[in-house]
Specification:
With about 240 residues, this protein is an alpha+beta fold. It has helices at about 15-20, 70-85, 120-125, 130, 135-155, 195-210, 215-230; strands at about 5, 25-30, 35-45, 50-55, 60, 70, 90-100, 105-110, 120, 155, 165-170, 180-185, 190. Helix content is about 35%, strand content about 30%. Strands 1, 2, 3, 4, 7 and 8 form a six-stranded mixed beta sheet that branches. The chain has a three-stranded antiparallel beta sheet with strand order 9-11-12. The longest helix has 20 residues, at about 135-155.
């Protein structure tokens, strides 16, 4: 993997510097939204793992942006807002957009890897629940619920809340074990006027696209209601 250093790419040169970096594709460029988007794995000069989302002509349209806007800007806004809300997400290293000679958007979003985290379903498959026990599993569900509640209290809807976008990290062993949950893939995030509708839509989606048992789901909802502070219609 190539070495990336933001310190060597100050000011307006930063975009071109990052754009020229090459690394292993972890998400091959796919054609959609009028362009292409893919994710590469890089390392900075201190050995830290980074993920760079690279897009060409990959846009979304909205009432505020009827002519189109790079989707990484929506993801950047969500990541920045989530950090302020206390929702655990990857830390942003760099975000930038520009138009090429053909007036087509080029866009970059570079973020730090979530060190030590893995997809929650992979954690289950590897026997994490059996190894750490039910008390630690409850702490995972509680931390997930708290992150989701903070997101929804901020009027954000994830929009693609599948289990594969829920990552977990466990630090320590025995009674000292600590669980952390993080959320990924915020490209479809958007603000909603109603935080309750944002919550209902996301939680219904997570229920459909996760392997939680009925008992685990009821426990997750219990922790969620405690963190959210009020009932969410449609989840009773």
């Amino acid at each position: 993997m190539d070495v990336v250093s933001a310190e060597r790419a100050p000011g307006t040169d930063q975009f071109e510097y990052f754009w020229q970096q090459r690394g292993e594709w972890v998400e091959e460029p796919n054609q959609r939204r009028g362009g292409e988007s893919g994710v590469q794995r890089l390392r900075d000069d201190r050995g830290h793992l980074l993920y760079a989302k690279r897009q060409v002509g990959h846009i979304y349209r909205s009432v505020l942006h009827p002519f189109g806007r790079p989707t990484v800007l929506r993801e950047y806004e969500a990541l920045h807002s989530f950090e302020q809300l206390g929702v655990r997400v990857p830390h942003i290293v760099y975000c930038g957009v520009e138009r090429d000679a053909d007036r087509q958007w080029r866009a970059l979003l570079v973020s730090e890897a979530l060190d030590g985290f893995e997809e929650i379903d992979n954690w289950y498959t590897k026997g994490g629940r059996e190894h750490y026990g039910e008390a630690l599993h409850d702490r995972i569900l509680e931390d997930l619920a708290r992150n989701l509640a903070r997101m929804h209290q901020g009027h954000w809807q994830h929009g693609c809340l599948y289990a594969k976008h829920v990552f977990v990290k466990v630090v320590g062993e025995g009674d000292a074990a600590r669980a952390e949950v993080a959320l990924l893939d915020l490209e479809k995030c958007r603000r909603r006027i109603s935080k309750h509708k944002a919550a209902a839509n996301d939680l219904r989606q997570l229920r459909r696209h996760s392997s939680f048992s009925d008992a685990d789901w009821e426990k997750l909802l219990y922790f969620y209601r405690m963190a959210f502070g009020s009932a969410v219609k449609g989840l009773e």
